């Protein structure tokens, strides 16, 4: 079945506000048609350049203008990054996501070092993601050639509410960076934050902006705001777990093939709450006792939770086999010449081949 790319705010709000059990059932059903419900992808965040950011994102402890307790750091060395990536791999993570507190990437020595970090982690047979702020098309291409798997750049909220939270760059700037990544074979990771004081219509608006991208992002992180003292959003009330479950379920329904990541805010969620998010279609988490600068559950706690729920961490670059029920249905579809239900984004082998071919053409 072709994916729907013309979702409206009204349609999405209607889904978000369905009776809770109906919403959960629909989301879980769609999740099972497109994904293995017992597999969850595990990423480890690594803040390679912390603090001192010139932007004014109202939620962010790394913005230089807010007086938080954060200790900033210059760009880490390639060796430090390699050591951290090895630790992440040993603890069961298949992806490292490197974050830098930059407004945008600047060509030069620091970017060259980041490219070397990407190549180094790739050689460890781990997926590499970066979130470095705004990118030009050329920078996106250079990251692709270095072997980047995914680029994270969030829309954060609806276009209308975004303006209440960030003034130093616009929604279109974000869409342009996502567009530049899309021109390469790097997969797109883009999502947002709930609990910043936005309305349900703003949540739906963000999902309209993401789901009408064609193709839809391969990965959508849903963050619950982590309120940090010193930031303008420090006094926000914790987002109710019900809202988080409803947001995950709605995201799953409007973007069936996307990896939905249960992101920031898990330290405040019970295991039961997180289990409902997985049931509703979340199939990725950030693991490790730190997100970029704020706390996250210990790896051992997460592994205990996975064991309890019978969840398995997804292997790097794994092309998942189809659940049997879907495979049976697909063989029927395929004989009738229809597109199979189960599909996965490009994986390492295809991407490396493409990169090699491009390099050859350029030479
Ligand atoms: N500087 C880059 C940028 O803004 O694109 C990359 C790093 S930035 C910290 C990545 C994302 O983390 C933000 O877009 C936002 O969605 C999320 N984030 C930052 N602070 C957060 C907080 N306090 N709570 C929840 N999510 C947060
Ligand atoms: C995303 O959507 N969430 C992650 C990742 N992408 C980079 C970051 C969460 C940051 C939470 C606040 C902090 O630890 O500084
Ligand atoms: Fe800077 Fe990114 Fe934080 Fe905004 S979210 S202040 S761009 S580090």
Automatic annotation (TrEMBL):
Positions annotated to bind [2Fe-2S] cluster: 97, 129, 189, 261
Spans through the membrane: none
Entry binding sites for [4Fe-4S] cluster: 53, 57, 60
Reactions performed catalytically: (4R,5S)-dethiobiotin + (sulfur carrier)-SH + 2 reduced [2Fe-2S]-[ferredoxin] + 2 S-adenosyl-L-methionine = (sulfur carrier)-H + biotin + 2 5'-deoxyadenosine + 2 L-methionine + 2 oxidized [2Fe-2S]-[ferredoxin]
Pfam families, alphabetized: BATS, Radical_SAM
Molecular function terms, GO-annotated: 2 iron, 2 sulfur cluster binding; 4 iron, 4 sulfur cluster binding; biotin synthase activity; iron ion binding
UniProt KW S-adenosyl-L-methionine keyword: yes
Enzyme class: transferase
SUPFAM superfamilies (alphabetical): Radical SAM enzymes
Ranges of residues in domain Radical SAM core: 38-266
Record field: compositional bias (Polar residues): 328-337
E.C. numbers: 2.8.1.6
Keywords: 2Fe-2S, 4Fe-4S, Biotin biosynthesis, Iron, Iron-sulfur, Metal-binding, S-adenosyl-L-methionine, Transferase
Subunit structure: Homodimer.
Protein name: Biotin synthase
Source species: Christiangramia sediminis
């Amino acid at each position: 079945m072709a994916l729907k790319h013309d979702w409206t705010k009204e349609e999405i709000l209607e889904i978000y506000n369905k009776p809770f059990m109906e919403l959960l059932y629909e989301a879980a059903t769609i999740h099972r048609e497109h994904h293995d419900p017992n597999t969850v992808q595990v990423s480890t965040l690594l803040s390679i350049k912390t603090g001192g950011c010139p932007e004014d994102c109202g939620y962010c402890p790394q913005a230089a203008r807010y007086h938080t307790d954060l200790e900033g750091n210059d760009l880490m060395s390639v060796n430090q990054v390699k050591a951290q990536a090895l630790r992440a791999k040993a603890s069961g993570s298949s992806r490292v996501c490197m974050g830098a507190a930059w407004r945008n990437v600047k060509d030069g020595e620091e970017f060259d070092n980041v490219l070397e970090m990407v190549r180094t982690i790739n050689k460890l047979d781990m997926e590499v993601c970066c979130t470095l702020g705004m990118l030009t098309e050329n920078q996106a291409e250079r990251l692709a050639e270095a072997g980047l798997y995914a680029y994270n750049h969030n829309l954060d909220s609806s276009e209308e509410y975004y303006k209440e939270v960030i003034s130093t760059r616009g929604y279109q700037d974000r869409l342009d960076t996502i567009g530049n990544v899309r021109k390469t074979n790097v997969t797109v990771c883009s999502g947002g934050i709930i609990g910043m004081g936005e309305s349900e219509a703003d949540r739906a608006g963000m999902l309209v902006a993401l789901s009408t991208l064609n193709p839809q992002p391969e990965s959508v992180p849903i963050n619950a705001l982590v309120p940090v003292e010193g930031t303008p959003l420090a006094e926000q009330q914790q987002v109710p777990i019900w809202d988080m479950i409803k947001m995950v379920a709605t995201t799953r329904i409007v973007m069936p093939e996307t990896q939905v990541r249960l992101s920031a805010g898990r330290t405040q969620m019970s295991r039961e709450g997180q289990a409902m998010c997985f049931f509703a279609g979340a199939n990725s988490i950030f693991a490790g006792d730190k997100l970029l600068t704020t706390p996250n559950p210990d790896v051992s706690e997460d592994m205990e939770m996975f064991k309890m729920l019978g969840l398995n961490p997804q292997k790097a670059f794994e092309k998942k086999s189809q659940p049997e029920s879907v495979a049976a249905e697909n063989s029927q579809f395929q004989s009738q010449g229809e597109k199979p239900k189960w599909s996965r984004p490009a994986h390492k082998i295809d991407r490396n081949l493409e990169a090699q071919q491009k390099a050859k053409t350029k030479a």
